[in-house]
Write a structure and sequence with these properties.
There is one protein chain. 34% of the residues lie in helices and 22% in strands. By secondary structure, it is α/β, with parallel strands linked by helices. The N and C termini lie close together (12 Å). Bound molecules: 6-O-phosphono-alpha-D-glucopyranose. Residues 300-303, 347-349, 352, 355, 398, 400, 599, 602-603 line the site of 6-O-phosphono-alpha-D-glucopyranose.
């Protein structure tokens, strides 16, 4: 969703800010803008549409050695030029870019209007520029603090003021903000992607923290204007991680990177000797782990589906009751928070607002929550009591692939760890470890079926509507398969437990409605095949994703076989071909694979 970039130093700011905005495109946005400050005052360019259109439309004279920019995802007011950020005050001396939502913007707009201020946009952000401009504080820091004291809501923001041409003031509350440290130049961004081309030395602001950024450094302080002392840390991502690297799409690159991503997730965490997983970041000693009676997993979208897969892994290996719930629903049902439940928040970005708010609800009520998060230092990672970093590397395509695979590995590690402080035997622990070690190569083997999968996807793409079905461990696989397919192909794809077909959806089966069925070799294979006969009898075309030793008998079906692992880990492999089916279907239909319509990579509003 919305993105912020800022620069201050010896170079012309606009190209650097625009380059940074380009790197944030993947998050999803519908307008963009940039403001620079030079001797002549503030200059602003902003418009609905793409960053490259903004760049093309930039006036010739747009110099200035400090600047801020923004990509906006419309919430308050349509995606128009006027509503795009930066927003200015009445005299054009203050420019503000803002991520998040100001809850009391309506009241503040009324007050400002009553005071004779003319608001030009429909946004919540614009009030900030007026409030900063109208403050009588003497410093820019004082003015920003005065404005923020009137605000209720969430923000990551950056402010330029024509009277203070040596600084950018930034603030964070619930929406990420990162300072990048260079040599006599400094950067600011809401996402590492915009910074790593220039520096890997970064400072993450905390909620309730502000910073003054000048060309030569930064100072951080609290919302009561007390100094905080932050040290820059080095991030281990590089600019190339955000390049498609010769691939046609990020999604394709990220699908192909999965064997290496999986290896990184597992590295240093498997202990053959005791048949367990080492997860130091969990902050859970064996006694704590033993006292857990239940596990509740929270995530959104694909992270929720992988959470269901995680719940079945945890139940299987640790025999603790476990279930997953959409984080977006959780806090609105006034959930009972139990002291002996381990809550697990799962998120690629670590910034999904619904998941973050669920974590805050749990910690506020004294519950214990750990995170399975990919982005190091992200809001969810920091709000949790501990966790497992996934190390998938940056994921740019909206449709999550390598991050999801590493999430399921994260759950396998957690399940193994919990299992081994409970009743899982050392032999079983070693069996799982041996399975985990085989996974990266097996993923690579599946990826070799790319051409065959493209051909199947091509056929599936012709149907307006399709079903994905699976049972027990295979059901989350089917749900994720349907999610991926609908997200990027825009075809109606619905997931059902195979066992439920006869209780309703069978009415929809016809020659025009194909079914992708997850049929691993397990204790339910025969029952699964029975249900497939019911589909076949109604002329429903079948694609069976399973194992080569599943005997389909007379059934007419297109087969996709994946290598077998241990039954508990098989679902992880069964998910992989479904990614390629969705990818190739979207390509066939000519869609923007990496940036599907109406969706954002990181949904930072409720
Ligand atoms: C958005 C994306 C989904 C993603 C979900 C959770 O809705 O479009 O693809 O699964 O957010 O994202 P997270 O970063 O928390 O894993």
């Amino acid at each position: 969703m919305c993105g912020i970039v800022g620069y201050i130093g010896g170079q012309t700011a606009a190209p650097i800010v625009l380059e940074g905005l380009g790197k944030l495109e993947y998050r999803g946005y519908d307008s963009a803008g940039v403001a620079v400050l030079a001797a002549g005052g503030l200059k602003v360019a902003k418009q609905a549409g793409r960053v490259r259109d903004l760049e093309a439309a930039l006036p010739k004279r747009f110099a200035g050695k400090l600047g801020i920019g923004h990509t906006r995802w419309a919430t308050h007011g349509a995606a128009t030029d006027v509503n795009a950020h930066p927003h200015l005050d009445a005299e054009g001396r203050v420019a503000v870019v803002h991520n998040g939502i100001i809850d009391n913007a309506g009241t503040l707009r009324e007050k400002l209007t009553a005071d004779g201020v003319e608001l030009v946009s429909e946004t919540d952000t614009e009030v900030l520029s007026h409030l900063v401009a109208r403050s009588e504080a003497e410093t820019l820091e004082g003015k920003v603090l005065a404005a923020l004291s009137q605000i209720e809501g969430t923000f990551g923001l950056a402010v330029l003021h024509a009277d203070f041409p040596d600084r950018i003031v930034v603030a964070r509350n619930g929406s990420p903000l990162i300072i990048g440290v260079g040599e006599h130049e400094m950067y600011v961004a809401s996402d590492l992607a915009a910074l790593v081309r220039y520096t890997r030395q970064v400072v993450h602001l905390d909620d309730g923290e502000l910073a003054t950024i000048t060309a030569n450094g930064f100072t951080t302080f609290t919302d009561t204007h007390e100094r905080t002392h932050k040290q820059a840390t080095t991030v281990d991502v590089v600019a190339e991680d955000y390049d498609a690297g010769g691939h046609e799409h990020f999604m394709r690159k990220e699908i192909l990177e999965q064997p290496q991503a999986a290896e990184r997730t597992l590295r240093g965490r498997l202990d053959e000797r005791f048949g367990t997983a080492h997860l130091g970041g969990l902050n859970l000693d064996p006694r704590d782990a033993r006292s857990i009676r239940r596990v509740k997993i929270l995530g959104c979208g694909s992270a929720y589906y992988v959470g269901q897969l995680g719940a079945s892994l945890i139940e299987d290996l640790s025999r603790l009751p476990a279930d997953a719930e959409p984080a977006s629903e959780f806090r609105y049902r006034n959930p009972v928070i139990e002291p002996d439940t381990l809550y697990v928040a799962v998120s690629q970005s670590g910034e999904t607002a619904d998941t973050l708010l669920a974590v805050q609800e749990i910690t506020r009520k004294g519950g214990r929550v750990v995170g399975l998060v990919n982005v190091v230092g992200s809001s969810i990672a920091r709000a949790c009591d501990g966790g497992i970093y996934l190390h998938a590397g940056p994921e740019v395509a909206v449709a999550s692939t390598k991050a999801l695979t590493t999430m399921s590995l994260g759950f396998a590690l957690l399940a193994l760890h919990l299992g081994r402080v409970r009743d899982l035997s050392i032999a079983d622990g070693r069996r799982i470890i041996e399975g985990l070690r085989r996974l990266p190569d097996q993923i690579a083997e599946i990826l070799e079926q790319d051409e065959a999968l493209a051909e199947i996807a091509h056929r599936l793409a012709a149907s307006e509507s399709l079903f994905f079905v699976g049972r027990v461990r295979g059901f989350p696989v089917a749900r994720e398969g349907a999610q991926k397919f609908k997200e990027i192909s825009y075809r109606h794809a619905e997931a059902y437990p195979t066992s439920e077909l006869k209780h309703g959806p069978l009415a929809l089966i016809s020659a025009e409605v194909p079914t992708v069925a997850i049929v691993p070799h397990d204790e339910l294979t025969d029952r699964n095949i029975g249900a497939l006969h019911e589909i076949s009898a109604r002329k429903g075309p079948l694609v069976v994703v399973g194992h080569a030793d599943v005997d389909l008998g007379e059934l007419s079906a297109t087969r996709i076989d994946v290598p077998r692992n241990v039954p508990e880990l098989d679902p992880i492999l069964l998910t992989i071909p479904l990614q390629l089916l969705a990818y190739h279907a979207a390509l066939t239909l000519g869609h923007d694979v990496d940036k599907p319509r109406n969706l954002a990579k990181s949904v930072t509003v409720e």
